[in-house]
């Protein structure tokens, strides 16, 4: 198969060539996941401890659907914005402030299990705000990161997601356990407020020209009409990202079957293995800059295959602590490296004029793929067992890696 050529560099070049705003982007990306980590990891544990049923807890899990749906309103952020305050900065000022207020609105729910309905409504508002903030932050990254900085930028983004999850799903839960609901919520709000301070100090380069309304919404489909995009976004990415997500869906259930307590599973999968993954993000980004996208894609695929093999004892029912932590850490590091490449190429393919829409649309594909394959992997495991299911989905990833390397070599991106 011959891959189509990549988009012209002139179409994907950033609008500024100065030093990237690392402090701004890092704090924005971390604070996205501080709140999300608390809602999807910490709050679930708190509500379960209060006796909330698993069926009711599924309401909280549904909140994550706002993330893939954000592409429906992403064109608004490309179309409208303040020239005086900065096009995307004006959105960030409003959204980051609203995120702080939404978190503070959680304060009255000091007995969260007793008011689940209203609590979920407030959480839903926060998730919508956070998802929209992600569009604005990623649009800035596409516009302001030079091509040679995109690998590191996306490495920082992936690493920041783990840091935010540890802070929100780990630290804030610890504060709740020691000092109560009010202290935990105030800590969440304070961490989110840090990013608002950074946004206030940031001065965004002028964005010109302004995107016509028809072009903003047309970008949802138009990005797939560009040379090279369909093969990468609809072929390579679902295989690479979806296959890895399929394997990663299996360990949690296998750990329960192996006799681990929910507390141990939560600490190991939510905190311990997140530390090497957080460090792997920037490292993978640096390697993308030094070795190129194809080399890191190959390395991530090989590492994922080796770490999947390391998970076989767990998948067979034996889960010694040290070996399991090492295998899970290795897998998450490999998964992170693949994630960095997928996001970096998505940024390469995004146009500065419709950066928020393009990048959001392209990164929604792996998100949807991960949801679908995680479910399919568990269904496959029910039919053929954990090991065969893991081998199948790891194979899917490796097929995607081979196709991805051929695509990148035929259509080199700078």
Would you write up a description of this structure?
Helices cover 77% and strands 0% of the residues. With 414 residues, it is mainly α. The longest helix is centred in the middle third of the chain and has 30 residues, at 150-179. It has one domain: Growth Hormone, Chain: A. It has 19 helices and no strands. It is globular, with a radius of gyration of 21 Å.
Shape: globular
CATH fold title: Growth Hormone, Chain: A
Instruction: Name the helicity range.
Output: over 70%
- Domain unit count: 1
Largest sheet: none
Q: CATH first level: which class?
A: Mainly Alpha
Number of helix segments?
19
Helix vs. strand class: mainly alpha
Q: Which blocks of ≥5 consecutive residues have pLDDT under 50?
A: 1-17
Give the CATH architecture: Up-down Bundle
Mean pLDDT, all residues: 82
Could you tell me the number of beta strands? 0
Q: List SSEs in N-to-C order.
A: HHHHHHHHHHHHHHHHHHH
Distance between the termini: 22 Å
How large is the radius of gyration? 21 Å
User: What is the CATH superfamily classification?
Assistant: MFS general substrate transporter like domains
Beta strand %: under 5%
Which helices and strands appear, and what pairs or packs with what?
Layout: H1 9-12, H2 22-49, H3 54-61, H4 66-69, H5 74-79, H6 87-104, H7 116-144, H8 150-179, H9 181-201, H10 213-222, H11 229-248, H12 250-257, H13 262-272, H14 274-291, H15 293-310, H16 312-315, H17 321-348, H18 355-384, H19 386-410
Helix pairs in contact: 2-3, 2-7, 2-8, 2-9, 6-7, 6-9, 7-18, 8-9, 8-14, 8-17, 11-17, 11-18, 11-19, 14-15, 14-17, 15-17, 15-19, 17-18, 18-19
Protein name: MFS transporter
Subcellular location: Membrane
GO molecular function: transmembrane transporter activity
């Amino acid at each position: 198969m011959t891959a189509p050529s990549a988009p012209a560099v002139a179409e994907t070049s950033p609008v500024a060539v100065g030093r990237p705003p690392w402090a701004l982007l890092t704090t924005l990306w971390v604070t996205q996941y501080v709140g999300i980590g608390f809602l999807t990891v910490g709050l679930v544990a708190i509500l379960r401890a209060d006796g909330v049923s698993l069926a009711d807890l599924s309401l909280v899990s549904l909140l994550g659907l706002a993330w893939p749906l954000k592409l429906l309103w992403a064109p608004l952020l490309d179309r409208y914005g303040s020239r005086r305050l900065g096009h995307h900065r004006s959105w960030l000022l409003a959204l980051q402030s609203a995120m702080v207020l939404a978190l503070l609105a959680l304060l009255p729910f000091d007995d969260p299990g007793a008011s689940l309905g209203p609590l979920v409504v407030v959480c839903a508002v926060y998730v919508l705000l956070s998802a929209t903030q992600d569009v604005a932050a990623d649009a800035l990254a596409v516009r302001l990161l030079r091509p040679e900085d995109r690998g590191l930028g996306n490495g920082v983004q992936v690493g920041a997601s783990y840091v935010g999850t540890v802070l929100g799903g780990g630290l804030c839960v610890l504060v709740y356990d020691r000092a109560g609901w009010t202290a935990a919520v105030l800590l969440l709000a304070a961490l989110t407020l840090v990013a608002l301070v950074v946004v206030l100090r940031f001065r965004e380069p002028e964005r010109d020209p302004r995107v016509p309304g028809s072009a903003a919404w047309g970008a949802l489909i138009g990005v797939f009409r560009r040379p090279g995009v369909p093969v990468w976004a609809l072929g390579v990415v679902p295989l690479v990202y979806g296959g890895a997500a399929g394997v990663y869906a299996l360990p949690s259930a296998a750990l329960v079957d192996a006799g681990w307590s929910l507390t141990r599973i939560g600490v190991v999968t939510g905190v311990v293995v997140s530390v090497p993954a957080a460090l792997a993000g920037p490292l993978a980004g640096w390697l993308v800059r030094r070795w190129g996208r194809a080399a890191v894609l190959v390395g991530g695929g090989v590492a994922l295959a080796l770490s999947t093999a390391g998970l076989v004892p767990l998948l067979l029912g034996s889960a010694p602590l040290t070996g399991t932590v090492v295998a899970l850490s290795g897998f998450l590091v490999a998964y992170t490296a693949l994630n960095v490449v997928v996001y970096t190429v998505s940024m390469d393919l995004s146009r500065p004029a419709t950066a928020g829409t393009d990048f959001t649309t392209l990164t929604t594909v792996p998100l949807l793929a991960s949801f679908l394959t995680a479910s399919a992997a568990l269904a496959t495991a029910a039919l053929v067992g954990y090991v065969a299911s893991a081998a199948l989905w790891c194979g899917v990833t490796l097929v995607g890696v081979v196709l991805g390397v051929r695509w990148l070599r035929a259509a080199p991106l700078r």
